[in-house]
Amino acid sequence: MSKSQKFCLPLISVPLTLLVSSCISASNSAPVPIPESSGLASQSIKSDLREIIEVNFANDSNRILITGKVDAGPSLNSGAIEIWDTSDWQLVQTLTTDWYINRWASFTSPSGEEIVLLDEEGEISLWDVSSGEKTQILVDSEERDIFADKVDYSSSQQVLAFGTPLGQLFWLDIRTGERIQLLSLEEDETFRLWSNVVFSADEKYFAAIAVRYAPETDERLGTITYIFDTETWEEIISIPFNGENALDVAFLDDNRLLLAGNEGVLEVRDLQTGLLVQDFRGELYPLNMSIDPVPNSETFAISTVWTEGMYGILGTVSLWNSASGEVVCTTDVVTGTAGVNRDMDVSPDGKTLATTHGSELIIWDLEQCFGR
Predict the structure, then answer these.
(1) Has this prediction a pTM greater than 0.85?
(2) Which of 89, 172, 230, 352 sits at a 20 to 30 Å CA gap from 145?
(3) Whose CA is closest to 294, among 258, 332, 246?
(4) How confident is the model at residue 355 (pLDDT cuts 50, 70, 90)?
(5) pLDDT value of position 205
(6) Do 301 and 317 meet the contact criterion of CB atoms below 8 Å apart?
(7) Distance set, CA 43 to CA 58, 81, 300, 306, 360 (Å)
């Protein structure tokens, strides 16, 4: 793919097959080598959703939230959040929501009594698990002055950080309703969207990735990753990617960032200076979509997708050691036409990886990777 070609992100409204096809480098005509599987034990569970968009484990690893799209039928005003028990992988509860597409959800505390939800319309709301009822609207999409696009939650601080399609970043206390604007790119004509917003594992830092295009030519200009200290909510640094695009970011420690993206981008950057520390570009696969840290280790799960002729979309997840730069283990390759590795999550106890595959969730046993 030339630098002038438009890159794309896994947005809900665009078929994932087209997205991945256009994001793989056209200049790389050689087939992508099939990664060697580590033979991890796995099982597939079938959701009642038409397509899974997001998965999130509870802090105790005993439950997992599944959100996504349902068959709308005659009305768009009905959706679902599924809660699954991870001990036997049985569906224990389904909450009926107000919109047929839900993009993200998280338990607000270890007790699992409450869920914070982002729907496709940009509304953020709180839901009581026991009653299944909505208890509060935190961001009302009907106001249209502020509506959420990307969001992440800090359970220790009980705050949300979210981006809007207009280029704003906000901090929001879910208990008091206090809301503070961290950044505004409304006057920046190059801003297009946020590719991701994420807290560090220890919740000391917050990162947001802004995607930029030339307003007249639609040439991609790359991304800028903004880093904030969550104690003061002051911006520490902004890290540009000129002409390339970081799709996800993870904090290796207090000094290093890991950035992954299209064209094989996989880089370690200094958190204070933004300078390149290590470059692993192309050592995995063409489109590194997302990163998730494996708790209590130096290992990160990196989700990858690519296209290959008649096989459609292929996806795998590699567990990568940030100290040695080596791949620890790799899941089997999953093939499909949509929803392959749209999202993934590693359980807080580090034992389980969950990846999406259309309306199915694939569960991988990570204990084999570490000889447990």
Answers:
(1) yes
(2) 230
(3) 258
(4) very high
(5) 95
(6) yes
(7) 19, 21, 21, 22, 10
